[in-house]
Amino acid sequence: MNSQQSFIEVNNLQKSYGQGLVQVIKGLSLSMNNKDRVVVIGPSGGGKSTLLRCVMGLEQIDSGSVSLEGKPYVSRSAGDRQTTIDKTVRSSIGMVFQSYTLFPHLTVMQNLTLAPVKSRGVTKAVAIERARGLLERFGLSAKANEYPNRLSGGQKQRVAIARALMLDPKLMLFDEVTSALDPELVSEVEQMIIGLAENGLPMMIVTHDMWFARRVATRVIFCAEGVIQEDAPPDEFFENPKNKRTRDFIENVLHAR
């Protein structure tokens, strides 16, 4: 990809845990443009979720950098005591986790409006109006005054996505957002994300659902052993993978379904 077109640039990222004993990401580099919907698949422990957390600026890294629109906002060089994280740039990115992370003591409406009012200085009236629009769009208008414990798993996840969208992110990250859901609830969340994709929102998604990956992605990346093993458009990736490690993974996953 032409670096001049890069929207997100991950450069030689290295990340380990346990004071360097377990290296999870090993010099990984990745670029995406603002039209991309990158789906990251791979075996457990291969570095997928850690990659998303590093892109979000939630992790201390060992070395490397992550840039948004040419501005490094996560970086660490040799000799640096800790990671430099530009929280202003990072605030342009939204992330949704598999565990929802809704505030249990706040209603759905309060969950949506808290961050815009507290961190962006948006008036409460404007935040409520935007929240109502998102809740209506996602079929949740009747749940505005409910608490999270009164929602189904699928509803909680849709609220979590709506909450992230309240801050008008330039990029959305989704980390296994359907893995904690009952099978009958998976489709409603996946269809919601597909709708966002069709509206042109750039996104990076970690998932084990191959149907969803093929449907939503413009690029599929296979991440294993801390590096990118393969990166291709979905049809090419699933029909003609170049890497034996990728072929074996796809075959095992599809046969397990």
Kindly describe this structure.
The chain is α/β, with parallel strands linked by helices and 257 residues long. The protein is 37% helix and 25% strand. It has nine helices and eleven strands. α5 runs parallel beside α6. The radius of gyration is 19 Å and the shape is globular. It starts with 7 loop residues before the first strand and ends with a helix. The mean pLDDT is 92.
H and E string: EEEHEEEHEHHHEHEHEEHH
Biggest sheet, strands in spatial order?
7-8-9-3-10-11
Derived structural class = alpha/beta
Pick out the low-confidence regions: none
Into which percentage range does the β-strand content fall? Answer: 25-35%
Radius of gyration using CA atoms only: 19 Å
Question: Helical proportion?
Answer: 25-40%
Tertiary shape? globular
Average pLDDT, to the nearest integer?
Answer: 92
How many β-strands, per DSSP?
11
> Tell me about the biggest sheet?
6 strands, mixed
How widely separated are the two ends? 34 Å
The number of helical segments is 9
Task: Give the helix/strand layout.
Blueprint: E1 8-17, E2 22-32, E3 37-41, H1 48-55, E4 63-68, E5 71-76, E6 84-85, H2 87-90, E7 93-96, H3 108-120, H4 124-137, H5 153-165, E8 171-175, H6 183-198, E9 203-206, H7 210-216, E10 219-224, E11 227-232, H8 234-239, H9 244-256
Parallel strand pairs: 3-9, 3-10, 7-8, 8-9
Antiparallel strand pairs: 1-2, 1-4, 4-5, 5-6, 10-11
Helix pairs in contact: 3-4, 3-5, 5-6
Q: Would you kindly provide a brief summary of this structure?
A:
The chain is an alpha/beta fold and 257 residues long.
